[in-house]
Amino acid sequence: MASKLYHWLNERLGFDDLYKGLLDRPEPRGTWWNTLGSATLFLFTMQVMTGIFLLMYYTPSPDHAYDSIQYIMNEVAFGWLIRGIHHWSATLMVLLVFLHMLRVFATASYKYPRELTWVIGVFLLLTTLGMGLTGYLLPWNQRSYFATTVATEIAGLVPGIGAFITRTLRGGTDLSALTLSRFFAAHVWMLPALLTVLIGIHLYLIIRHGESEYPTEED
Amino acid sequence: MGKKHNVTRRDFVKVMTGVTGVIIGGGIALPAIGYAVDPAIKSGGSGKDAWISLGPVENYPIGEPTPFNFTRTKVNGWEKTASTHGLFVLRKSDTEIKVFSNVCTHLACRVAWHKDKGEYVCPCHDGVFDKDGNVVSGPPPRPLDQYEYKIEDGNLFVRFAGG
Predict the structure, then answer these.
(1) Distance, CA of A120 to CA of A128 (rounded, Å)
(2) Which of A49, A85, B67, B74 has the most CB atoms lying inside 10 A of its own CB?
């Protein structure tokens, strides 16, 4: 019965082919360093899941942001765990993205025909840092408030349009409720949507080209 | 394929990957479920059923309705709502006590005790109640609500039903 159902579904959905194409593809011999990209993808998945759960209690308003996080940490069952995972895998994700980039650089995996994968990867790095920047403000405590003050001021150092960039990031001249809600919007929708699209292309390119062979002495 | 009890390396890795996945998935999913249903299983604050202490019974003179106010706080998540409730303690004798809510039964304004007239008067629509809480005149549909009370070691308590 189960195998009949399996065949019926497989005939229509074709997950045997999918499995072969995605997971059973031939790869050159690699090392543990080759797993950093997958590890980052795993952390991204964790971030999406824990992030969605944090949204159940978090409130992006200056009046409630801090209190709602205190509530998550001290009152809600496993709130400390969900937020802890979100906090620490955010930190770890930035670290892993950098290590992944260093590995790709060291093994020259960015060369033809994988230049686009590298370029997308650079955007992924920047978007990940953007997630870090916007997420940092959301607890709305002293540290996040002044970290964002400094960060948006640094953005203002761009010649000519600097002041405009700062105002755009802050939603006005001051760090305010508008800053919090636009950083929130960026953190939970704009950047994640962008990240998802970029990850999709990145993965497609990896499956299309396969993993690169490590360079040999002749190279 | 080997003998019956032999497991190929490939199958072993597949099974172990699955097992690890289930452990990690369960390790996240179970706390996440607890996290999601948490507010449904606990209620916070003092805004629930409780006995409110009104102090020694002797503080309330016999024959004269005496007002008493108390505040209850309801906690929903990080949001606190304080509400003030008022009542009148009427000691008719050493043993007989009535505790009236000061909420008018018409549209929930607060009634006041008018000593000169010996009546409770509601300022909103001229509802008038006598000393025992019965409607004298005006729109109120029923007598003033009464609190359930008890006396323990000479102290008076009323039962706050929540809300």
Answers:
(1) 12
(2) A85
Question: Which residue shows structure tokens 């939603």?
Answer: A171
Q: Cβ separation of A49 and B32 shorter than 8 Å?
A: yes
Structure tokens at A4: 């009949």
- Return d(Cα B57, Cα B134) in angstroms, integer: 24
ipTM (interface predicted TM):
0.84
**Of the candidates A49, A67, A68, which has its C-beta nearest B28's C-beta?**
A49
- Contact status, residue A206 vs residue A117, Cβ threshold 8 Å: yes
As a whole number of angstroms, the distance between CA A118 and CA A107 comes to: 13
| Domain B45-160 architecture | 3-layer Sandwich (2.102)
CA–CA separation, B145 and B163 (whole Å) = 15
Instruction: Provide the edge-to-edge strand list for the sheet that holds B149-152.
Output: B50-56, B155-160, B149-152
Specify the pLDDT at position A25. Answer: 84
- Asked if the Cβ–Cβ distance from B35 to A77 is below 8 Å, we say yes
* Domain A39-209: homologous superfamily in CATH: Cytochrome Bc1 Complex; Chain C (1.20.810.10)
Q: What is the pTM of this model?
A: 0.80
A127 touches A195 (CB < 8 A): yes
Residues of A in contact with B77 (CB under 8 A): 57, 68, 71, 75
Residue where the block lists tokens 């995972």: A85
